[in-house]
Amino acid sequence: MKIIKVKNKQDGGEIAYKLIREAHESGATVFGLATGSTPETLYSVLRKSDLDFSDKIAINLDEYIGLAGDHPQSYKTFMKEHLFNDKPFKETFIPDGLAEEESEVKHYNTVIESNPIDVQILGIGTNAHIGFNEPGTPFDTQTHKVALTDATIEANKHNFDSENDVPRFAYSMGIKSIMSAKKIILLAYGENKAEAVANTVSGPVTEDVPSSILQKHPDVVLILDEAAASQL
Ligand code: F6R
């Protein structure tokens, strides 16, 4: 794993952008994307850049079950507002939160298999989830329906009017699919990510710490601010 320490989230976004740009220049065509507060600065740099994604494909990690794509808190809306409205891609894929489980899982796995991911952007949960693969998720999982943990509901409730409004389930790309990406860039900022980051880098590789599997990937870059790196 390569670790890049940055001063703050703004610098982290700039560094991540440079890595994306390099991949773009080397011919990457499929970009795996994340939502949440962590990649916001990266998307802001991307939006203002001259990089052209009009012949590229974006595949997002996850979506809340029960929210329509045009719901203000859906990840589809997030991606439109933070990136796609300003930076159009040839095709974008995000799980359909209203679709029936069996067909959506099959569909999303086909999407990922037909479009092997060149670069995958990841954030990390305080419980070390990647995508919405919560602790205990088998490492060989592909797209699946996830019951969000209390920690994740708690961490995400600020985006909703109340905790009761946070969906309890999501569709998520699985760990096996994430690991199949050629390059992985994980971003983490803030003290509350420090323990998860330390366990990712030097803890045992265990399904109790989903991100620990990244130790087995040949090309992972971690971009961390000082607080997130403070337990390394
Ligand atoms: C989002 C995702 C999650 C987040 C993680 C961190 O698509 O898959 O794993 O990356 O929950 O969220 P933030 O960035 O809001 O701290």
UniProtKB/TrEMBL annotation:
In this protein, the active site sits at: 62, 127, 129, 134
What's the name of the protein? Glucosamine-6-phosphate deaminase
Annotated Gene Ontology cellular components are:
cytoplasm
Listed CDD domains: GlcN6P_deaminase
Family named by the database record:
Belongs to the glucosamine/galactosamine-6-phosphate isomerase family. NagB subfamily.
Acetylation keyword on record: no
- Tell me which UniProt keywords the record has, alphabetically: Carbohydrate metabolism, Hydrolase
What Gene3D superfamilies does its record include? 3.40.50.1360
